[in-house]
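Model it.
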Amino acid sequence: MNIKRVMIVGTMIVAMSFGGTAWGKPALHTLPVAKWSTVDVTDTDELLDGLNLGASSDEELYDALYDGKSLHTIAEENGGNIQQVINLQVRQLTQQLEGRLASGSITLQQFTAQKAELREIVTQSVETSFG
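Modeled.
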């Protein structure tokens, strides 16, 4: 299982569950049926570098997440750079939004509203533990 893909999909689920709002602030509604797409994820090393886990630690990251630790906690424990992780996730989610805009599954107005919320949602998600 590619842990990076799991994290990206998990973050997208969080973003989609807010339906275009940032913690209750009114915004545009998303389409009732979202078309899911995945970005070709080839920068696993960048995620692991941000968490300071080394390039071969997918299993270590998976285990820590499974044990209920947040990405922020994992980075703190290992002397990592959580901002690098946030930037990576925002960049990947922006690529997914751009793909959805290009395919016509969202409007420019929806794209703009959702893109404006990405950093806040990703930042909140790295603080969340699922234990």
